[in-house]
Amino acid sequence: MTKPVLLLDGASMWFRSFFGVPSSITAPDGRPVNAVRGFIDNIAALVTQHQPGRLVVCLDLDWRPQWRVDLIPSYKSHRVVEETAGGLPDIEEVPDDLTPQVDMIMELLDAFGIATAGAPGYEADDVLGTLATNERADPVIVVSGDRDLLQLASATVQVFYIGRGMAKAVLYGPEQVAESYGVPPERAGAAYAELALLRGDPSDGLPGVAGIGEKTAATLLQTYGSLAAIEAAAEDPASKMPAAQRKKLLSAADYIAAARPVVRVATDAPVVLSSESDALPLTARDPQRVAELASSYGVTNSIARLQKALDKLS
Predict the structure, then answer these.
(1) DSSP letter for each residue of 185-217
(2) What mean pLDDT, rounded, does the chain reach?
(3) Are strands 170-172 and 157-161 parallel, antiparallel or unpaired?
(4) By percentage, how much of the chain surpasses pLDDT 90?
(5) E strands along 115-234, which residues?
(6) Does position 56 have pLDDT exceeding 90, yes or no?
(7) Residue 175, exposed/middle/buried by CB under 10 A (0-12, 13-18, 19+)?
(8) Ordered structural domains, the chain, with CATH
(9) What angle (nearest 5°) sits at the alpha carbon of residue 38, between those of residues 33 and 41?
(10) What percentage of the chain reaches a pLDDT higher than 70?
């Protein structure tokens, strides 16, 4: 039986670990390691649950790409570090105690031999989208707490949504996306992206179409099938679209055009893997280094749990 490839949204997972695991979890020298412990424990849990043959941790090499900001200036602007005398830096606000833990996680992944992937000028969403869409050998499971990734759901790609925590995680295929959001089942993933565009997303600084909420957006997509067909109906005086909806959509024509490539994850990002293979290692590539790091960071038990999960794959 074909084993799936797990594509993990790295930042989404370690942010949730940081806020979900008590900050009282520290290394022997007192440094906080709650995100490190939570992240490694979650990988162990994912390996146990999904039994993958391959695994890639996908990274944000550019969390707010300029090309997206050029199209929608408000894109993620509320997440930028406050303005300083030198201007508005394009740096995401990250808790002080999390930044060094990301470095620890990256060290452990490298020592263990777990592949990472990134693309210059692109977000992790785009890395996930590119790898998932272009996978031809195995079924894909994308793991993220970001609902934007639901647009990747297809016949070969499922999205394991962890936004409410690992214990309440939900596996979405096209049928689940269609059922949950009322979008056309035959193109549920693409329709979800169009739903998000129409309703907007405050967490990403996307205003949406004024007066069009999620329910209205879903109804429009069910009625017309696609955003392109909705636009065509709005522009056609003979269509049966209510005048109020027509006016709202036509007024937002410039926003809709600009938002399309912003909301859609890229599927052609120049992804670079950290290693030649994304095969999930059954044992650490550098056991001594892993042991040293685990001891230094106080996560020996988490590494043991990960190894136990891997042992069950062999």
Answers:
(1) GGGHHHHHHHHHHHH-BGGGTB--STT--HHHH
(2) 93
(3) antiparallel
(4) 87
(5) 115-118, 140-144, 157-161, 170-172
(6) yes
(7) exposed
(8) 5-177+266-307 (3.40.50.1010)
(9) 125
(10) 95
